[in-house]
Give the backbone structure.
Amino acid sequence: MAMIYDLVAQGLQMILVLAVAPFILGVTRKVKARLLRRIGPPLLQPYRDIWKLMHKEAVMAHDASWLYRGTPYLLFATTWVAAALIPTYSTGLLFSWSADLIAIVALLATGRFALALAGMDVGTAFGGIGSSREMLIASLAEPAMLLVVFTVSLVAGTTQLSAIAEHMIHGSVGLRVSLGLVLFSFIFVAIAENARIPIDNPATHLELTMVHEAMVLEYSGRHLAMIEAAAALKLTLYFSLLVCLFLPFGMATGDKSPLAFAIGLAFYLSKIMLLAVLLPIAETAVAKMRVFRYPVFLGGAFATAALAVFLLFVSQGF
Amino acid sequence: MAGESLGTILRTAHRLPVQQPWPRYEVDSTQWLAIGQTIAGGGGDLIGLWASPDSVHLALRSSDFETPCVVSLPVTDGTFPSIGRLHAPAIRLERAIRDLHGFTPEDCPDSRPWLDHGSWGVSAPLGASQEAPLRDPAAYEFLPVRGRGLHQVPVGPVHAGIIEPGHFRFTANGETVVRLEERFGYVHKGIGRLLAGAGFDRAARIIARLSGDSTVAYSFAYARALEAALGVSVPPRAQILRGVMAELERIANHFGDIGAICNDAAFAIAHAHCGIFRERILAVCDRTFGHRLMMDRIVPGGVTTDIAPATAADMVATLDEITPRFAEIVRLYDQTPSLQDRTCTTGIVSKALVDRWAAGGHVGRASGRDFDTRRDCSYPPYDSVPLTVPVFERGDVDARVWVRIREVEASMTLLKAWLGALPQGPVFADLPERSQAAEGIAMIEAFRGDLLVWLRIADGKIVCAHARDASHFQWQLLEAAIEGNIVADFPLCNKSFNCSYSGHDG
């Protein structure tokens, strides 16, 4: 019975991230539209878009190989698995011991690697440009992300997400300079990874400025539905990760009763909803940056995270 | 080599009395080439080059003359000496002449077709018009680029956004653009053929549709050219109303452009607000003139729609309401570092190039070319008002935005002055019946810069006509503006030029 209960709890977590992801994207679009004095699409539009794309014909280039066809599914699968492994409303779920923070970073990198290859697979100029820019961003964002992981792990003494969250809630963490620095760095990385302004513009129609959109320009139908769903999931994943690492309060830890789960769920949903409102507000205030400024932006994230690691080496007190 | 001055060359040339208001001279091929040398040496501006069934015509502006003038070279054996060989801005115009009229520019450095993509089924539709086999429109030799690590990025003619068709062939080294080559003609509508033989009213409607966003300017230029040919003078009230429409069109388009440039840097808030301003102006135009873009409202002889005093007040109220809000958006533009980082030093065009290409409008004025048709080749109603012409030196995207901002402000001042003191009287003068042949030419400052319309009429009909869009020479400079910039900055440069595809393709 306990086993079934655990399985249900884990299942809920997996379904939850998948179900809520398009809604979160819908919220960011709605808030953005309101800020620009437009009414904006309905909150449920991303679900409808995915549904629509699922029922459309997938048009493919003559030169498309198995890689091109398989990538959307691989991307979706890796993103979903990664998102499902992050504690959202409760720590210590059934699968939470199967992978740690480094594995999640690796899962995301796998998906991106496949997508970059697929972008080049059909041989269009835009796919190549997109893949090249995506790799530029990845090569700058991943080291920063790993330093964030190191810092958090050094503070908590583990790379296990469940254990980190519990440590943040119950341990005497207090206000730490190092955590403040990596929070800053993490947000920069998250913006870059999710192709948001100022790195990339998810709403652009200008093929020459695209990064993520350029890679997937040739996709259509169910393939595009998978990619869109993966993109929505990735945003939710980064929100969840931010909540789990830096704001885990309210999460069910020791008590595994349905009530504790319900409280954890309510806290989780309100926190990611808040982030979904804050993101477009920040985005409205800045313009997209020049491609050659990416290294400055992400280099800043890397330097900040590195500083946090050094501080922790100097003294565990930071 | 500067060559002789145009005044010296044309002193012996035969002046034809048929054209109004600018003089037209008939020259021989020696004089024609001497003029080419002079323009190439900076002794004058080339403002148009076109053909009629019997001649090729070159419109020039020079400090030697009060008004611009036209020189014509009769074409007897289907060829004429190339000006493009001496003066590069003429090359595309000569290629267009070859495609449309079949006249061969001798020694023109570029023998590729320009407007003719091989899908018309005829060659030289305005000339001999003979059946021609269809060619593959995609077969076109782009200029060769040699070097290590270069790759090509073909963009268009179908774009990801809802914009007009045009092909851009980038040669890049990674992100850095080494060369951009444009290819146009996808929206060639055969305006020359449609106009030949058309009645005046029909011709007015055709010319008004050459480029929808400049419809007022085109109608204005057509009306002035025809009025010059017929010797009609327009009532003062109609002249002011024409100015009002032209300035409203300029403001609306500049609002759209300023917003769109910001939007290309993903700064959507400026775009949203400029969109609202533009909409307010278009709504006022609709209320006042019965058409949002004021299409077909300027006609030869005057204007079709008079405005009531209440409407004039309504328009002033709208402008007064927009002014402070626009100032706030300008402040936001100027004080957002992330946006300034994108626009400043991006897509620089040098003063030498805008002078050589005689680029008007925001492209020329952002690079230090102090020219505005409204002031320097003035026409009513601008000849009786003081006009501020903003000129910037930097030549980057930012400067082109600032030219627009200052022009919006200047236009608002003009509009308020005009609307506050509209002269009374009729708004239309009847056109006289005239059967003998005549020619008229007019240059108007559209929101993009100077556009040119030339007409030859006889028996109450258009015999042949030519319209040169304001963006013709600007398109060529766009190729220069992007050089050395990165591929991802092209949309920003392109939007800061905002040239017309439809107007260019004719």
Remarks:
- Chain A is about 70% helix and 0% strand.
- The mean pLDDT of chain A is 93.
- The radius of gyration of chain A is 19 Å.
